[in-house]
Structures are given as structure tokens and as C-alpha cells.
Specification:
146 residues; mainly alpha; Methane Monooxygenase Hydroxylase, Chain G, domain 1; 2 strands
Amino acid sequence: MRDALFATVTEEHATLEAFASLLAYEEKALAAVSPLETLPGIIEKKNELTEKLASLEKTRDDQLRQMGLPAGWKGMELAIADDARLAKQWKLLQAVVERARRANATNGLMIRVRMNYNQSALAILRGTTARHAATVYGPDGRMAAV
């Protein structure tokens, strides 16, 4: 069972590496003047990888339960306590998790800045200031109160 758990954590690591790389690509797209050509493909791939990561996490939790351990972080901490090979792979996975978390936060900030810029531009086009804009288009394409 430990070999299966090791294989799952290794696959999680590889998948998360791909996700982190995709986030770096997304950051470059968001910095571009016109990111609309590349963002749909990036979003589609991110969704695929997110689904795969969720599936792998469920598999890992199931494997931990089969070993008589709790699911999640606590179970992994117990599983790696006496398995140096698994501990090393888990540590690698956690490093990529942190890198992806930071990249995702950066991209979220870039998206918010771009949205604020677009809202200000809309307010100017409407002849109002951003502070006094009555409505803007929401993500669903409908007018929403600010």
C-alpha cells in the first residue's frame, strides 16, 4: 500500500508542477496587452489539471484510510514518519504547492488590477468617475450595481 501511496504523491507532484508552470504562462498572458488569445486555452487546461489534482487527492485520502490513517495532512504526516522516501516526495509536493499558491495569488492580483482599470475606463466612457459609476458589466455580462 505504501508503494501505491508513493506513486499517487509522485503523480500529484508531477501534476502540480504542470499546474505551476501553467500559472507562470498565465501570468505572462495577463501581462500582455491583449491576453484574450491565450487565456481561454490556459483556463481550460487549468480546469483539467484541477480536476486531476482533486481526483489524486481523493485517491491519496482513500489510500491513507486503507492504511488505517486519517485522511489529509494529518494522515500524511503519520505516513511519512517512518518512510524517508515518501517523506522526501511529500516535501517536494509541499514546495510546489507553495509555489503554485504564490503564483495564483499574483495572477489574482493582476486580474483585479486589470478589472479595476477596465471599470475606470468604462466610467470615463460613460462620463462618470469610477467612484460615481452607477453600474458596470459583471462577469456574466449583465449590468450590476457598483
